[in-house]
Amino acid sequence: LRRAIEREEIKVLYQPIVRLEDRVVAGFEALARWDHPKLGRLSPVEFISIAEEIGLIVDLGLFVLDRTARQLATWQANASRAQEPLFASVNVSSRQLLRHDLIQDLRGVLGRTTLARGSLRLEITESLVMENPEHAAQMLTRIKELGAGLSLDDFGTGYSSLAYLQRFPFDTIKIDQSFVRTTARGTRPVILRSIIALAHDLGMDVVAEGAETDSDAVELYHLGCEYAQGYAFGEPMSAEAATDLLNDKPAPRPRALKIASE
Ligand code: C2E
Ligand code: MG
Ligand code: MG
Q1: Whose C-alpha lies nearest to ligand 1, atom 11?
Q2: Residue 185's pLDDT band (cuts 50, 70, 90)
Q3: Which among 34, 122, 253, 260 would be 20 to 30 A from 143, CA to CA?
């Protein structure tokens, strides 16, 4: 793993995040993969915790951040001015947030690239910010001041304090897939609607994670959720495939959504 970055075995894939209103790709989440010479493609679940343990997460995180920022700058430079600027979000793990390098690294990355303010977003899980809420609050404020955006990842899975949620300067809440999926009885969890309302009351946008089917997407739209990410709109893909997706006309809207919005 220590040599994987220099050997270019770490790949960054991009998964589309779609605006539900018109199904246009609004941004991407960067997701790391390790193309291991013997073991094949490894998921981040298999190597991120190891990178944290051996103190490699800062380097690995910087690599993903830098790669994503450059890619986003290219996409933004090639987009027409009428469009809202595309965003890209990068996952940050606890060791990165606890160390002050993150601020330095972020400042460096933002200095090297020309990006629309707030369009490079850091995704931070609620369990991570709740590990040390006072410290996290300070770090989050500095991240915002530098011009990056902030997403609260996997919302609803950890232990969260509503008092802190109010104080943290997140722009976006990402609702965990477990709240998006239908239950065994075929219904959505009852609190999905409340989570969306809570986020809106706090002035935050909502991204639903794990939208796997078209009916997920249609229902999320009707619940007032702005964005969705999931297999319904595309799996994590290479930068080339993501560029092709951006250059294409938006995918035709399925009948259900058309009827609903017309
Ligand atoms: P995450 O940030 O919550 O990312 C979403 C995960 O859900 C991704 O798994 C994605 O491939 C998966 N996913 C997307 N759409 C669907 C869907 O419709 N259904 C289902 N069942 N799953 C879906 P992935 O890529 O394996 O990443 C797992 C976790 O690893 C991420 O969870 C994130 O916490 C972490 N991770 C990934 N890349 C990085 C990185 O560069 N740095 C750090 N620190 N963590 C990373
Ligand atoms: Mg994430
Ligand atoms: Mg997530």
Answers
A1: 236
A2: confident
A3: 34
Ligand 1 center to residue 218 CA distance, Å?
Answer: 23
Position 262 pLDDT exceeds 80: no
Q: What is the mean pLDDT of the chain?
A: 91
**At 95, is the secondary structure helix, strand, or coil?**
helix
Atom 36 of ligand 1: nearest residue by CA position: 44
- Could you give the CA distance from residue 89 to residue 123 in angstroms, rounded to a whole number? 6
- Is the C-alpha dihedral spanning 107, 112, 114, 119 positive or negative? negative
Cα separation, 73 vs 183, whole angstroms = 40
Residue 212, SS3 per DSSP: coil
- Which of 60, 91, 207, 233, when mutated, tests ligand 1's pocket best, judged by the most ligand atoms within 8 Å of its CB? 91
H or E stretch at 66: helix 57-78
Determine the Cα–Cα distance for residues 26 and 252; give it in Å rounded to an integer: 16
Total-model pTM: 0.93
CA distance 171 to 18: 16
How far apart are the C-alpha atoms of 44 and 118, rounded to whole Å? 25
Distance, C-alpha 107 to centroid of its chain = 20
What pLDDT does residue 258 have? 47
Protein residue whose Cα sits closest to atom 30 of ligand 1: 44
